[in-house]
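Lecture notes, unit on binding sites. The following record was shown on slide 14. It pairs a sequence with DP6.
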Amino acid sequence: MNKVKIKSPANIAFIKYWGQKDKKLFLPYNDSFSMNLSSCYTILEIEKIKDPKIKKLYVKDYDKDDFEIKTDKSFEKVISFYNKAKKFLKVEKDYGFIIYSYNSFPKKAGIASSASFFSALALAFSWFFEKKLDQKNLSILARLSGSGSSCRSIPDGFSWWYKGKKSNESYAVSIAPPSYWDLVDLVLILNKEEKKVSSFEGHLMAETSGLFKYRLLSLEKRLKEIKKAFFKKDFTYFGYLLEEEAISMHSVMMTQKPPLFYWSGKTIEVIKKIIEERKKGLEGYFTIDAGENIHLICQKKDEEKFLNFLKNQKEALQIIKNYPEIGTKFI
Ligand code: DP6
């Protein structure tokens, strides 16, 4: 077989990864917890180049006609990951191959497009180099891509990323399958443009925030509580913790040096409306990753009501409906 196709989901973090204790190995300061998203995914095809003299890596977008060899920053990340994967998998030889990628949602807008891309690429590299990895090692490999959250897209459903003290202890596992809880993530796209500061750059400055150490202290309790709420399916407390966590991470971002404001005026407007709706009895909670777009988490029984509510928001450019999803797989 010279070609394989892989599908991998993006994930939404309920408890977030922000800041790295080890910036080379991408070891986080804290555990994090997420849900894989059914409608936000990357499809990646990887093809070996038969001619042994060609030892190059090409990346091509499905949606572009011309065959473009990428040279931008994201491509540098692919090359660097290729070299790390070789080292991790103990591969000496170089080969040539082409990667075709398709994204079902806007890239680099804070919906973890690199998580779905790099988790798929981790599986692609292990196939390409003919090294079968178990899920733990696949997750470690994905983490080493530099898009740390990609390690949470490997397992099915709801993933818990153990921060670990060493590289071989820092990986994600599934704590529940997609069918465990019928949560819905309605992603409200307020802006489709690429964010100006990547999470990659943002992470590096997390420790410069005076709030960072307090965030880590508060996380100890929040991590325990959210696990309890999740296993009890206590949606009200779960939702409260979700919002507290998103605000905590963004407070650190906003107080970093230089300050990092991912939220826009539109983000705040929608947040206020979600809180208003809740007061009227419609129970949904917001969370936000590194971007201005909002993830509204609700239960399946309220999905239609929320869709109607969101469709009437002038700020919304697009709404993407997601259910819990399996992890990275060959298709
Ligand atoms: C705010 O370094 O994994 O989304 O490479 O952009 O996917 P990308 O980011 P990464 O940091 C993720 C930061 C976050 C929180 C989270 O997903 O845990």
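Take-home: Residues 13, 16-18, 32, 112, 114-115, 147-149, 199-200, 203, 289-290 surround DP6 (CB under 6 Å).
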